[in-house]
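2024-03-11 09:14:02 INFO worker-7 job=invfold-0412 stage=load source=structure_tokens
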């Protein structure tokens, strides 16, 4: 077994273990398009009784409680729990920066496989998109293992890629990305909002980009377009880099908070389970399984 397949198998095992403890935040989302076995927020037509209320114009008369009418002379409606099937669109950033280090690549794959495992355990209708600004593709879960899953794209932004996807109205939209592209977060959030769904951002990060520790004259390789750049770094330059890096993600966090999106950053060198327990649950990106 080659190194890539070993990494994929490890990612699937880790994702399966995570899916035993955590699930996707579907309780925060209303799903209207599919019948299923998940309890929704509205009244529906399952066999599980929910509550009584007075009959209103437009209600289905088949749900009138005629025994209550015989006793009181009032038209009382029996409401039942709504059964829905969650719809989930998984959007994977396939730019080269997602695999800048082996640890970051592993984190990306674990998050992807966790989303797939969680969807299947929920009985969700899900679809996966590999996002590249020039070559966005629809993926099956079998495409997400081994050499079929390619991270070769340059990501000038995600909006062009989103225009090439068939996002479903009202779906839970999961964006797995490092968000390292120069695009206005509000513009992207507005684009996602058009589908009337809820978005959550699972942000992949690596210590080498968070706090790189560069020093002196260095030849750097741009992993997106493979161009080389000679740069000088000292403490002052690194401080500017760190401030800009933190400000970039603080802006993303604020925009997501205002839009009601989930947003959490996950570091590749830390336990993902412990990060799910803290950042993930707190920020509405995952939920603890009941």
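2024-03-11 09:14:09 INFO worker-7 stage=emit residues=290
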């Amino acid at each position: 077994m080659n190194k890539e397949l070993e990494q994929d198998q490890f990612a699937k095992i880790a994702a399966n273990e995570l899916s035993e403890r955590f699930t996707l935040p579907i309780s925060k989302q209303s799903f209207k398009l599919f019948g299923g076995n998940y309890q929704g927020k509205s009244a529906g037509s399952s066999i599980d009784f929910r509550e009584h209320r007075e009959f209103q114009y437009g209600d289905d008369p088949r749900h009138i409680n005629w025994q209550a009418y015989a006793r009181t002379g009032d038209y009382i409606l029996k409401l039942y729990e709504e059964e829905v099937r969650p719809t989930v669109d998984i959007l994977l950033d396939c730019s080269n920066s997602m695999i800048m280090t082996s640890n970051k690549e592993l984190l990306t794959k674990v998050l992807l496989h966790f989303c797939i495992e969680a969807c299947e355990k929920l009985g969700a209708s899900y679809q996966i998109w590999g996002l590249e600004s020039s070559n966005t593709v629809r993926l099956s879960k079998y495409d997400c293992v081994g050499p079929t899953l390619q991270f070769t794209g340059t990501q000038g932004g995600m909006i062009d890629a989103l225009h090439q996807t068939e996002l479903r109205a009202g779906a839970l939209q999961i964006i797995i990305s490092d968000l390292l592209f120069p695009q206005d977060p509000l513009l992207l959030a507005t684009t996602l909002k058009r589908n009337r769904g809820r978005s959550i951002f699972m942000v992949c990060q690596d210590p080498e980009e968070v706090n790189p520790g560069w020093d002196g004259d260095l030849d750097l390789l741009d992993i997106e377009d493979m161009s080389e750049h000679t740069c000088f770094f000292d403490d002052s330059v690194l401080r500017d880099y760190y401030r800009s890096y933190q400000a970039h993600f603080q802006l993303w966090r604020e925009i997501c908070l205002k839009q009601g999106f989930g947003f959490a950053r996950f570091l590749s060198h830390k336990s993902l389970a412990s990060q799910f327990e803290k950042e993930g649950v707190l920020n509405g990106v995952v939920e603890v399984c009941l």
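2024-03-11 09:14:09 INFO worker-7 stage=report msg="Residues 38-84 form one domain."
2024-03-11 09:14:10 INFO worker-7 job finished
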